[in-house]
Amino acid sequence: MMKTNLTYQKRKSFPHYVHSHKIKTPITPYKTPFYYAAIDLGTTSCRLLVVKDTGDALKIIERYSSSVLLGEGLSKTGLLDECAINRTIRTLRLFVKKIHNWPVSNISAIATEVCRQAANAQEFLRRVFEETGLRIDVISDREEAELALESCGSLLSSPRYYNQHMHHSLYARKPCPNRALIFDIGGGSTEISWVRTDHTSRKYFLSGMTSLKHGIVSLTELFDQLTLKEAYNAAVRYITSKLESFESIYCIKREVAQQNVHMIGISGTITTLAGIALDLKRYDRYQIDGTILSCNALAQSIHKIKSMSQTALELHPCIGRSRASLVLAGCAIYEAIQAMWPTDMITVADRGLRDGLVIRMARDHQFRLRREDNNKHYFNEQPRSGALALSI
């Protein structure tokens, strides 16, 4: 594997847009903007995103995340805990209040692995609807991977972006990779997507994906009888074994060896490691999202986390109390992925399912407007056949 002293390349600051770029195939900017809201309910966190769609850009209005630990104890009991349910419903009530501050025309709320696994998930979702008015859809692991891919589109489809940030001379002579490996380390599962990119058409295609039924919460609970060091090493070995079947199908190592893979990490784990690598005094999404880091820098971040006490982890501005006991499990998952597919660099993405949801809502809205506009032109310009074409 090629060695480099490059630690990271800080990207230029972007406007506060989802994806930090304009919507593809824009139409004339709307006279009145439209507002969309997306809620992503996961095993550890509940996330809200409200955006304003002006027709040529999506501007973030509200971006909020709360640690609800809905999946706490799920791997052992198979049920959602009553206290966790109450915490989550309180957070969802807060989200509804925030949404009502804006003239939101479309709301999309989804739940992932935590509600795919829990035996009492339907009862929980019924309570959510009765107490908040929100209808939450439980999506499949395939849909989860597709939304994550959607959110990373601007990082995948722009060779110019990649070349600007992969500035090291050893990389400058290499073409932009036409393969990407995207991983999303969640609380209850980890999704890994193998993606083909067509830089000519600026399109990307999901070639394959796998969902490991372990995230930072379930993996922590799986090895909670061991010492921290034993649990960490066991977790790395366990996840590595789970990745082997995916590798045997797609032969990703061969593409990695040819430096034809763009690695992208989505999740609190990878953004936490990036924050530590950049030595941030407080977490700042706009310094993290889209940054390209060397994997050596991320390895140093893991080493720092391992050396920190529980109190130090809780006090760290990029970790905090809610993630202090879970962060090592996320590091173990990342280390297993990196050991299986050892790339030199990784793009850090502070974006995910809620970003994918609002992009879909905006695109669907544009499609409807174009269809209506085309229908108007058709009926205004085309002669009517038969009796309807005759003047009365």
UniProtKB/TrEMBL annotation:
GO molecular function: pyrophosphatase activity
Protein name: Ppx/GppA family phosphatase
Domain annotation Ppx/GppA phosphatase N-terminal: ranges: 50-149, 178-364
Superkingdom of the organism of origin: Bacteria
Cross-referenced Pfam families: Ppx-GppA
